[in-house]
Batch of 2 targets.
Target 1
Amino acid sequence: ESQNKALYIDPAKEINITKNLSPDGTLNWNVPKGNWIILRTGMVPTGVTNAPAAPEGRGLEIDKMSKKDIKKHFNAFIGKILTRIPAKERKSFRFVVADSYETGSENWTNGFTKIFREHYGYNPLPWLPVFTGRIVGSADQSNRFLWDVRRLVADLIAYDYVGGLRQVSHQHGLKIWLENYGHWGFPSEFLKYGGQSDEVSGEFWAEGTLGSIELKDASSAAHIYGKSKVWAESFTAAGEAFWRYPALLKKRGDWAFTQGINSTLLHVFISQPYEDRYPGVNAGFGTEFNRFNTWFGQSKVFVDYMRRCNYMLQQGKPVEDVAYFIGEDAPVMTGVRDPELPAGYSFDYINAEVIEKSLSVKNGRLVLPDGVSYRMMVLPKLKTMRPELLRKIRDLVKEGAVILGPPPKRSPSLHNYPVADQEVKRIASELWGNVDGGKVKYRKYGKGMVIMGMDMQAALNKINIVPDFQLASEDSVLFIHRKLLNTDIYFLTNQSDRAININPAFRVIGRQPELWDAVTGEIRNLPIFTQNGERTSVPIKMAPSQSWFVVFDKPVEKTASDNDVSNFPKEKDFLQIKGPWEVSFDPKMRGPEKPVIFRELEDWTKLPEKSIRYYSGTAVYRTKFNLDSIPNANHIYLNLGNVSAIAHIKVNGIDAGGVWTTPWQVDVAKELKIGENQLEVEVANTWVNRLIGDLNLPKTERKTWTNVDPYKPDSPLESSGLMGPVKLISVNYSK
């Protein structure tokens, strides 16, 4: 240790000889007696270039800690576009988009020394040898200097890059839309970074786990910085193209809603400039939402579902129980939940800036200016905290806040060292007292409480916070809760591929539960429920991948007592429609020239005719059926059974709507009549089968074209068409 200390650099003994360096690089210095190391430090570009970009658009990345450079870049890029579009024609040009940060970090900028001194109160120049791996002062002090650098870089990236882009965009009547995270060297703090943007967004992919941290990062930033919308780049994808369709997207989209997303941005829509190339241009990293995709013409039912969900989830404020403080270290892309939150509760991540500037206490809850609130704040298991922040946390507890976590031991910064450490120890001792996480796990302080050494469920029980949404065992159901003044909105999603019956307890009392179906737009009462203490239990049935909104709005008049009443009455099959079916394919899409008779419903890929087997596009199924009577029911559904990929229904020439997800049915009660009925089902599949079919043809005979085609001649075909069974179902729901 003594030998190591002999290598430490004493910052007081360093000499700044910058003035002795001539412009040509010659050093003129009368060297004092002794052994000296001459260290020259300068700022140079990192050499990082922007990507992805066309060759014409490639160049060095700009300084992300310079508002001046941000403005220069804006003027050279967006500004050029603005000069070419008259102001009166800019109605749809509203946002500048900054995608996920993927360009690495930086550690210096022009004027950084001055900014650093103003921020921390000491000169960073004597500490620059730390950048070369040397120790200045001590290992602890050197690490504190690096902490200060990283923290300041993170803040400047947020304020000067995002804030600077917002500032110059506003000058031109534009807002910025930002994904508040990054990979491969993200240099900032995700919450503060997102807080400087007008709109904040996450990202999730149609398959896989990408989005597992990004969405909560985005929703937390939006919630703590008072933004009502939480966007998501939605259904980004990789691998095989064109095989996805709305039913395959629903479960993942519903999961995203439970992460706080309420503004869906479909990814990706390509304008398709080549009118004679099908399926056309594709990106290779997105779901193909565009006019040349086979099912795009029927996708309104899917888009309407997303719109209804977005609308509902933009109402009121999110209901959150816990704020997880992410700590002050930087850079940081997401928070840590330790201890983990049990099922049935919700959380946000929160940062030091919001705690210090915005958080207050009201009626025992930590409250933000726009009304979002938390019952508890969890501190990370870190040994450091700035005294300024610890003072604010102490004051919040004194006013009634509850915190869970260990006391800090010292400041992370070299600012006001070592006095800051002494203050941290003093405040921590005052706040935690004799709480040691062992024999003593909590104490009251002022109106609030400090807890340490408990798991989350025990801590929540200690302050009498029951789960917001509780199930006995079914862990495949996820939820999110929004609250207006006298209305509670819960969104539930069955993330399993099986039908389930659940009896969840909602943390609501005194109001009538209603079922709102975002697939159909239908609203009805749920007559069977029980109320106990703070919660209302409601029996609910969910089909595979199904979702519901359960809304508590109107006062309870009375609960149903009739044994024949049910929230989900038994559905009765009263007619199976067997055909025969006349099926018309589109000759322009290389289907059969004349209608084909299907005696039984079959998967197109199982048929020998290549014009059907490899068909991609829309086919129309027509048949007739007779009804001697119509059941006395308030709902009569036409259920298609198995269909791929999406369908639209007409009964007796009347549009009855589209089906795209479980339970694959549409209400046709108004369209049916006694006697002969005509049924028309328009089915669209995907491009997959035609792309594979064309690969089995000579190149001169292939008519499909796309720039990213991952298929091979022997790739498996995708099940297509109406497979059924098709039947009519009656059910009486309580109104």
Target 2
Amino acid sequence: MATIALSAVGGLVAGPLGALAGTLLGGQIDRAVIGGGGRREGPRLSDLRVQSADYGAPIPRHYGTVRASGPVIWSNGLTETEQEEGGGKSSGGRATTYTYSASFAVLIAGCAIEGVGRIWADGKLLRGAAGDLQTPAGALRIYRGTEKQKADPLVEAALGLDAAPAHRGIAYAVFEDLQLADYANRIPHLSFEVFSGAADVPGIVDDLRGLTCAGLAADAIAAPWSGYSLSRPVTGRQAIEALGDLVPMTVVGSGDALLVAERRGGAAASVAKDMRLVADADAVPERQQAARETAPRVLTLEAADPARDYQPSLQRASQPVAVGGREERLSVPAVLSAQDAKLVAEERLARRAARRWTLEVRLPLSSLVHQPGDLLTFGDGLRWLVDEAELTGHAQTLRLSRAEGETLSRPDADGGAAQVSVDIPQGETELRVVELPPRDEGTSAGEVAVHLAAGGASAGWRYVQLLASHDGGASWRAIGATGTKAQMGTLGEALPAADWSRWDEEGSVLVNLLDDRSVASASRQAVLNGANRLLVGGEIVQYRNAEQVGARAWRLSGLLRGRRGTEQGSVSGHAAGTAVLFLDRGLVKTSVPLDLIGQPVLFKAVGPADAAGAVDSITHVVTGRNLKPLSPVHLEANVGPDGALFVSWTRRSRAGFAWIDAVDAPLAEDVEAYDVVIERGGESATWRVGEPALNLSGAELTARLPGDAAPATITVAQISQRVGRGAVAHTALTI
């Protein structure tokens, strides 16, 4: 049963302030896993419910580019899919397996965002920067939190038109049928690369205007970060003051008079001696130094490093021992490069050391232009920051602290080694559609087996969804998906004809592969047991030896040609450039109805970053090859003294390639029947017989094919009542 896990606006604490990505929400998402940790019935989950996030949880707000987590706000629970496997003679009986998927929504931000880039699941890349998913999912929809967004159709279908919230003003993602096998059959911890609005100080302060008061003002304070997330539920003023951990700024006043001012840069105002109300007009105001322990000697700054997939990075800054003795650690909800983080740490440490010096002066009322955040100098070359300004009697009392010196240069820094996800685009997909002779697992008598293989040259190729159309592209249906990259290529040189009845120790196959993977050799016995099969054109070839002879070129030798009834290819050979497909892995079987034999069927392979409508289709004319009888063997024809013709052959069966009991192979057809076609002198005649032999008297032959003795061709094909003639055997003689 579908559930709502969080309301559209949530329970906001002091306004719509959010939780720092990876802290509060990280814990929530850990709790939002499948409640299937209890008893399991073999490989089957006993509880398909999904735990939800708590009502009233804070909703995060992001600026710039950050990596952020979020709670599950809706789910319809787990979907269990039952699959039957096995059942063949060598499978040891049928087995039932279960796979699980989930459809759910995850909150991203409590504000509108520009978009989402990469997505991580349990720390592993789920979606790349190009928008390509690393694992099959029915669909992924991102809602950017606009005020016009509508309810998700999946949520709407589950909850009803009137109950499904649109979550306007909130960004969230909806995953539909995400496969959970890679995540221990639970919804994984998800984090998103979020692109939001302005990340500078004025932009953040302006966004917080409604959370604090009207009339905020902020100077153009440069921000060192590329992204910033509000760290915890706080007041608007606290949120703004937290920026002071990263930039030299001060927040003064209250209510509508709240002011954000820069504490660095620009010229300091000079205060003349005759303006000071001090006992000795010639004296410099007295400075006082706080205890050395009030300022840290070492400051360690922790921030998200974009070069580390936004994982935390630590940068240290230190002062001479004489400055202080403490060590301080500061964790900030900002995205900083290693260099910027070290610069921030050094500048903050310098500010803390300088502000140990304080000063208090009294000025006449005519100097009331000074206010907190101003920089002043008293003729001694030092710069002082106004921390407080107080009107007392006929004077203004200023309490100041030393301002730091010149702006530091950007230091060299190293974020350290990190295990980051490799984001390689999937690239283009090559799809092969083939029909093969019957395979060991068998096929329903009423269906034609078509095999699809997909792969690509890119090392980032991951998977495709497979679609088929039986009506010329007017409609499409999903026929499965594959995440197993098929190995394929083309012939680098012509493959000549060869004897298919024995090992070919002289010939070889030169294959130019589509990608950089290797090809393995196999023993003679392993090949005889079915290993190392490849399809060259329409011929199945096996090989023992594989030798790399180029960047993607391999020479295969120790060949068996014309396997599983494909000997016609070994008789004719293949030209350079012929398609080559390795058959040991990566094939997906689909079935089409018998009535489509001879008709075109369209297929598509849609990658994770592809739009299905933009993907080109492949047209395949169905032959029903897996249901066609094999060609007979040992075809013999003899002519008797009176012109009689004696033809005989041995049946082969698509239901049993191995001659395991030294008797006839199984029939595999409803009725045993053969067509024998004799061509002579431009004329032909056909006889249908129910046994592997044809005996004709001279008179019978002459009646059907009159004329003098001449060279003739005899072909024999077994008949299937479903798909007609199978492959032919032929011989020639003069009759």
